[in-house]
């Protein structure tokens, strides 16, 4: 029955045609959709590309230790999120690599340098602590004074024998008088209001300060008996006549006389024994009035170097 078959055949053919057409449309649509959905310039894609570049560029250096990689990651993270410009996508990883390479030694240098510095400074700290003016409770007064390079040293680690009683140093007194004459020319009338102090007197003074301010405070401004530089006869507390309000006071350093002494005393063999900021070395807070006779040569060297007597003598 061709007549009856024909429509059926036509129906079949048209069904196949439509099916093919629909399939084709679906396939084309899918392809178009896939093509359309392919992201081209989105930041995310560039990041992916950059990451791929980084990964590929990292391949040759994958043998590097894991720590270095971790550092690279740290460096790259902000770069990727910050810059998303298309032309830089290829360069970025290279630049990052270079930066990382450059930074690697920089990062390591301080790490290595720090321990060295610490190691170098540790002994200094220990020395400072050792010299830091603390009294050693086990230290008994010695039988002989400490003399280094011909210079008598007295501090909280180097006391004097109780019997050490030389009186005021004659050479020191002569030097002071010479200095006083010179200062008078500049209109400054210097007075040495306290010089030699014997052991018993220092004991009396110190005990009085302890009773008044307590031992901790007294130890900052007064020496225990046997530990006073005044017992050497070479320490001169200097002020200005008519300026008694500044005697043994920090304010003396701000007066004309105090400034003159700080600038000129070394020419006469005297040093400012307890300079500002040296309490950890000398054991005493700044005393603008306390000068110590060490002789012109040593005094000038100490003045020019800007060091304390302890540092000059290397203790
Ligand atoms: Zn003094």
TrEMBL record:
Residues 46-143 are annotated as: Disordered. The keyword Hydrolase applies. The chain crosses the membrane at residues 18-37. The keyword Amino-acid biosynthesis does not apply. Residues 170-295 form the D-alanyl-D-alanine carboxypeptidase-like core domain. Keywords: Carboxypeptidase, Hydrolase, Membrane, Protease, Transmembrane, Transmembrane helix. Residues 60-128 have a biased composition (Basic and acidic residues). Residues 46-57 have a biased composition (Polar residues). One of its GO terms (biological process) is proteolysis. This is D-alanyl-D-alanine carboxypeptidase. It comes from Planomicrobium soli.
